[in-house]
Amino acid sequence: MPRISKDLQDEPQLARSPGPSWQDLLDADSRPVPDYLRDQAPYLNGMDDIPKDRYLSRDWHELEKERLWSRVWQFACRAEHLPEIGSYIVYTIADQSYLVTRVSADEIKAYPNACQHRGRLLKTYDGRASEFRCPFHGFAWHLDGQLKHIPAEWDFPHLEDRRQDLTMPEVKVGVWAGFVFINPDPASESLEEFLGPEIRQHFDRWDFENRTLTAHASRIVRCNWKVAAEAFCEGFHVSATHPQGMTYTGDPQSQIDVWGNAARNISPKGIPSPLMDYTPSQEEMLRDALDVREGEPLPVPFEEGDTMRDVLSKAGRERFRGSYGDGVDALTDAEFLDAWVYAVFPNFQPWGAFNRIVYRFRPNGDDHESCIFEVMYLAPFSGERPEPAEVVHLGPDTPWTDAPGLEKLAMVVEQDSFNMEHVQAGLKVLRNDGVILSRYQEALIRWRHDLIEAYIDRGAPK
Amino acid sequence: MPGGSTGLFDAAGRWIEGEVFEADPEMCVWVSAERIASSHRLSPQE
């Protein structure tokens, strides 16, 4: 396993960005910030380049299929995607397909999505079923995986003693914060052990079970899934990729924390980037944060002496009071303002606090040079649970702004997408053997690669 | 630009015409994107 040093005395002095740190902003927060949210867990594991073959090589993709996706916990769907007994979704990862289904009010099971007669995929779309019946010859299974029906059973005397063998094999299922995970490895640790205590404690504060999908868009991107995922792991890219955000984002002052299989990158808002050569006013910062352009009025009150952090944290509390309740008054300004980008290894990024954003990155079937990048919005609600938003599928050249409900995020993600396929193409041109990562700001990228390498080094599953 | 010089660029930042011959491509992506109604996550609910 990679060496993870939290003792900074082992390392050369860690350089950090000039300007106020996120910790400095928490010191000035209008509410007390719990110690566990302030935790600092930097990830320092050397400064080696990352081999570019990990993005380009078919062989590396095959190793990921064999040794990573076959044995890691991975986010499949939200619990509300399975509202009724018999509700199911088809979860695909590389060339594997799984049925994830609700078998009772409080139990979800998952199975490899293949008929055990001649292998046809049992389902090719999400829905609700009373049984899993193969459309090819009619073999059928109960929702709990027990064999239900062999058509022309008289012609299968050799199965008489093998009926138990035809029970649908199960893969592990775990649910955390309303997110349903599966793991094909029967010997894996529990989901709780995999996640660890830190991220679970953080998300307990924000009641993610009681959130609803208000938007869900999926786009094919012409790059390896890791190229896409790595576009969202650091604030370092803001100054070039999202220059409109520099007036109000302390991008190099992002804090990076790693706890085993979970991590986060927090980028503070309401302070200008120290990379700028002038200091914007608080009103300018606010106008840019809300994309209010010249001549347009601010949609929130702003008075002389106000700061962007004050104004938007107050506005945030009022925006979410209706759905979250008066509990918003105890939450910190930081929870309404800053970008709390959490990451669960290997490919899942549920943003924390009130950011609403959820990202997932998967290989596009068996193609190592394209991926499925999903953007979701998960928001608190009040009253009866709304139906989750239907997923909108976008082609690789369809703008994110064509997907309803993503609001300004669609414009922001369009800027990120502007880079991704050009990274994939550029990696083939790159003369160096690897890509260079910064020591601190790009640590989440190194963290992910170190963990992938650890899975690969374990060898093939037995 | 300061001094009043201008340039015209497409959505990806390619120069079309004008004295100013380069522009930040990501700013061009931003400015040319279909403008979503100002609905930051903290904006008042409509």
What's the helical proportion of residues of chain B? 10-25%
Q: Distance between termini of chain B?
A: 36 Å
Spatial strand order of the main sheet of chain B:
1-2
Mean pLDDT across residues of chain A = 94
End-to-end C-alpha gap of chain A? 20 Å
Low-confidence parts of chain A: 1-10
Shape of chain B: elongated
Which residues of chain B form runs of ≥5 with pLDDT under 50?
A: none
Question: How large is the share of residues in beta strands of chain A?
Answer: 15-25%
Secondary-structure element series of chain B: EEH
> Could you give a short account of the major beta sheet of chain A?
5 strands, mixed
Description:
- The complex is a heterodimer of chains A (462) and B (46).
- Chain A has 462 residues and is α+β, with helices and mostly antiparallel strands.
- Chain A has 13 helices and 20 strands.
- Chain A has helices spanning 22-27, 35-38, 53-56, 58-67, 191-195, 197-204, 225-230, 238-241, 282-289, 308-324, 333-337, 408-429, 443-457; strands at 50-51, 74-78, 87-93, 96-104, 107-112, 127-128, 132-133, 140-141, 147-149, 172-176, 179-183, 211-221, 255-259, 262-267, 339-344, 348-350, 357-364, 367-380, 392-394, 434-435.
- In chain A, the strands form six sheets. Chain A has a five-stranded mixed β-sheet.
- In chain A, a hairpin with a 6-residue loop joins strand 16 (348-350) and strand 17.
- The longest helix of chain A has 22 residues, at 408-429.
- The two termini of chain A are 20 Å apart.
- Chain B is an alpha+beta fold and 46 residues long.
- Chain B is built from one helix and two strands, in the order E-E-H.
- Chain B has a two-stranded antiparallel sheet with strand order 1-2.
- In chain B, a hairpin with a 5-residue loop joins strand 1 (7-9) and strand 2 (15-18).
- The longest helix of chain B is centred in the middle third of the chain and has 8 residues, at 25-32.
- Chain B starts with 6 loop residues before the first strand and ends in a 14-residue tail after the last helix.
